[in-house]
Write a structure and sequence with these properties.
Order of helices and strands: HEHEHEEHEH
Number of strands: 5
Helix content: 25-40%
Mean pLDDT: 85
Low-confidence stretches: 1-25
Strand order of the largest sheet: 1-5-4-2-3
Length: 138
């Protein structure tokens, strides 16, 4: 499978110049579908079937995570090689620390045939601020 990359790079690794540039400039991709922390919490409480993918690095996951809600860690740089771990038929929620990296990943997934994918607006820090203040922010 050839992977389309909206960042116009060979991969999503944080060592890729355009990814570093986007992170440094805090640019958000245009037209990324999002879900707020409150909306996600309501859907989880209803028992909706959702796949939550955390695209942060392992050391960030160790600070705080949504594992209690079924989230799984697939770091952004590993995602192209691990797409087979995400079912394209699932509704996928992508999250990171603040929503920037995950917005880029949403576009990447959309470009690769995922049609039911949403960015967690504000990332884990917004979740901690709006839903679960027991989680550490950074």
């Amino acid at each position: 499978m050839v992977l389309a990359d909206p960042l116009r790079t060979a991969d999503l690794s944080t060592s890729t110049p355009s990814v570093r540039l986007a992170a440094r400039e805090k640019r958000m991709p245009e037209e990324v579908p999002e879900i707020t922390p409150a909306e996600l919490k309501a859907r989880l409480d209803r028992g909706d079937s959702l796949t939550i993918v955390d695209v942060r690095e392992p050391f960030e996951w160790d600070i705080s995570n949504l594992a209690a809600h079924g989230a799984r860690l697939i770091p952004m740089g590993e995602l192209p090689g691990r797409l087979d771990e995400i079912d394209p038929a699932d509704e996928v929620i992508v999250q990171c620390r603040s929503g920037h990296r995950s917005a880029n990943v949403v576009q990447f997934l959309q470009a690769n045939g995922y049609t039911r994918v949403l960015n967690l607006a504000g990332g884990i820090n917004a979740w901690a601020g709006e839903v679960d203040p027991s989680l550490r922010t950074y």
